[in-house]
Amino acid sequence: MNFSYSKKDKLKSKKLIERLFSEGKSITVFPLRLVYLKTTFEDDSVLKTGVSVSKRIHKNAVDRNRIKRLMREAYRLNKPKYFNKSSTSYAFMILYISRNKTTFEELDSTTSLLFQKFLKHIPKDETVS
Asked: Please, what sign has the CA dihedral across residues 73, 51, 23, 111?
């Protein structure tokens, strides 16, 4: 797996997103929450990921877009470390839950901790790494 975050890796299906929030499980490492669901994709993707920042907490679109851009970059850089040999398909939604603005360094380290915690929570027969 390379360091890309291409169009086929993005979570866009409204049905899948609704299913993700209704049936999925979540892990939190403040200021991020990962909602995940084991699933299969028609295009044989291993991971599909979306990022979200609450409009209620961050009123300015400029702030929301900056945080989302930083979250996508942190995900893109950490994905090969944790999901390089993945055979199980997952849908991810990464939510930013803090009221404060953030830096890339903080998001990068938090994303790494979030993925480590995720790998500890999934059953061993579904090993992703």
From this structure: positive
The SS3 assignment for 79 reads helix
Q: What is the pLDDT of residues 113-126, one digit of tens each?
A: 999 999 998 876 55
Is it the case that residue 128 has pLDDT exceeding 70?
no
Beta-strand (E) ranges in the chain?
25-29, 32-38, 47-53, 90-96
Question: Domains of the chain by range and CATH?
Answer: 7-121 (3.30.230.10)
Query: What's at 113, amino acid-wise?
Result: L
Residues contacting residue 51 through CB under 8 Å, at least 6 positions apart: 68, 71, 72, 75, 93, 94, 95, 96
What tens digit of pLDDT does each residue of 28-67 get?
A: 999 999 999 999 988 888 899 999 999 999 999 999 999 9
Nearest to 40 by CA among 19, 62, 70: 19
